[in-house]
Amino acid sequence: MAVFAAMLGAAAIAAPALAGGAGAPKVRTAKSAGGPYGKVTSLHVPNGESRTGYVKVISTVSEAQDATLTTGCIFIAKRGECPIVTRWFKGKKNISGDVHTTGYEFTLRPDRPKRFKVRFKATSDATRCIVARVDAPPDLDGFGYFAVNGQHACDA
Hints:
Elements: E1 3-8, E2 11-16, E3 26-30, E4 40-43, E5 50-58, E6 65-74, E7 84-90, E8 93-94, H1 96-100, E9 104-108, E10 114-122, E11 128-136, E12 140-148
Parallel strand pairs: 4-12
Antiparallel strand pairs: 1-2, 1-6, 3-5, 5-10, 6-9, 6-11, 7-8, 7-10, 11-12
């Protein structure tokens, strides 16, 4: 898979479709809290409606890691505003402000995955790929994806 440009606030970030490596957190997505979790989850979100997705972040190292969750909208065919609005939650706490700007910081422990809920609202029927990116020092990135309104929205 190729490298896409994803929008994170006003800054563009490079988001490899297959990322990771030794020590990189595993980021998995699902339609329901109970799973099944995978690298890419397909969601249909009709214009004006909302759907919920879930993200699970799993440590791949034996010690605690400082990590940061960010998100972006990957543009495959057409540039512009992302027609999918996302709200991110840790439990009942809305963490969207952090996720969409500087990133939501948390500690990732080897024995306990972190779980997040994301609420998607479509402002059009456009197909987009929403990425959940978790950075863990030093330069270890994990990615999970939601293919919104198109099964192949996250394909290269």
